[in-house]
Amino acid sequence: MNFYFAPMESITMYPLRNIHKDMFAGSVSKYYSPFVTAAKSKHFKNREKNDILPVHNTPFFEGNVSSLVVQIMSGNSETFLWAAKEIAQLGYKEINLNLGCPASTVVNRHKGAGLLADPDYLDSMLSEIFEAKENTPELKDIEISLKTRLGIADENEAGKLMEIYAKYPISELTVHARVKDDFYKNTPRLDAFCSSMKRYRECGGKAPICYNGNIFSKKDYEDTMDKFESNGITNEVSSMMLGRGILENPALARELTGGEVLTAPELKEYLTKLYAGYEEYIPEDRNVIFKLLEHWAFIHTHFANCDKYLKAIRKARSKGEYLAAVRNIFASCEFK
Ligand SMILES: Cc1cc2nc3c(=O)[nH]c(=O)nc-3n(C[C@H](O)[C@H](O)[C@H](O)COP(=O)(O)O)c2cc1C
């Protein structure tokens, strides 16, 4: 099983990706950028462009094979193809189309999971993309993968979607086993995921399949694998994408591949490096701390009875206050 680091808007930016790759090398085979928007104006936002510039992502270009996948948010083939060419020119080898974002600002513009509402339109968009890819020299060698949900409101929508995906030479199909209306709530729809994958194969879909949803621990992984086995799809799923689980436990992929569990000194080093990484491009202490708080929202689960100490981290307004509060939580709370 391969493990991938999921795209997470505003969180999995280049400092995090580089530091994670440096410290937990080998356990994650691909990282995804949060989506870059393929706007009608044919300009990337500065923040998004900055995040994918090769100069900020040098560890991912070693050996001339980029293990960083850039994700595009687009609602039509024209802007997708423009963005894909720009990204190909930067040296990336795989581009991923976002068909899963449930935010209403995205869905209402018929992007992200919004594209799942009109399968015929999605079919024509993919047809235009793959036809143009064949006829565009800059795009010939680039791989295009999809990250989708099972539908908008009902998992039975997935059958039709799988018939469509099976028609195109996508390089990988990642499925977040929820529908748009689930957002990130409830448990993933594992039975629907399994039957959809069978449908995808029945329709001739050949792409490797990546599962995504609620893998936080070895137990979650094993339970999910059991489910795949009882549904006869174990051999069909070659990778798992980890999102909130790997933010909570940066060593999760290592643990799932039989390696050591996360240690407190490792987590401390990771947080110290993240602070330094964010400090390089975020001007004020306060804003660096806000960025780190996005991580603490996941990481605090490692500390028992930590409310008081966590509050001090949240209240920190200077680097000194923040570092002292972090030292305190490590010194005072049991690490689990
Ligand atoms: C804050 C946040 C931001 C996200 N941003 C993106 C994104 O930019 N692109 C994307 O495809 N998915 C995005 N996702 C979805 C995750 O990649 C992943 O599919 C989801 O969290 C389910 O996986 P998990 O249960 O392992 O977290 C985001 C999720 C969260 C919670």
Fold topology:
Elements: E1 2-5, H1 14-23, E2 30-32, E3 36-37, H2 46-52, E4 68-73, H3 77-89, E5 94-99, H4 104-107, H5 119-135, E6 143-148, H6 158-165, E7 173-176, H7 190-202, E8 209-212, H8 218-230, E9 237-242, H9 244-248, H10 252-256, H11 264-279, H12 285-299, H13 307-315, H14 319-332
Parallel strand pairs: 1-2, 1-9, 2-4, 3-4, 4-5, 5-6, 6-7, 7-8, 8-9
Helix pairs in contact: 1-11, 3-5, 5-6, 6-7, 11-12, 13-14
Flavin mononucleotide binds at residues 6-9, 11, 34-35, 71, 98, 100-101, 147, 176, 184, 212-215, 242-245.
Cofactor: FMN
GO molecular function, one term: flavin adenine dinucleotide binding
EC number: 1.3.1.-
Structure description:
The chain starts with a strand and ends with a helix. It has helices spanning 14-23, 46-52, 77-89, 104-107, 119-135, 158-165, 190-202, 218-230, 244-248, 252-256, 264-279, 285-299, 307-315, 319-332, and strands spanning 2-5, 30-32, 36-37, 68-73, 94-99, 143-148, 173-176, 209-212, 237-242. The protein is built from 14 helices and 9 strands. It folds into 2 domains: 2-256, TIM Barrel (Alpha-Beta Barrel); 264-332. Helices cover 44% and strands 12% of the residues. The mean pLDDT is 96. Residues 6-9, 11, 34-35, 71, 98, 100-101, 147, 176, 184, 212-215, 242-245 line the site of flavin mononucleotide (FMN).
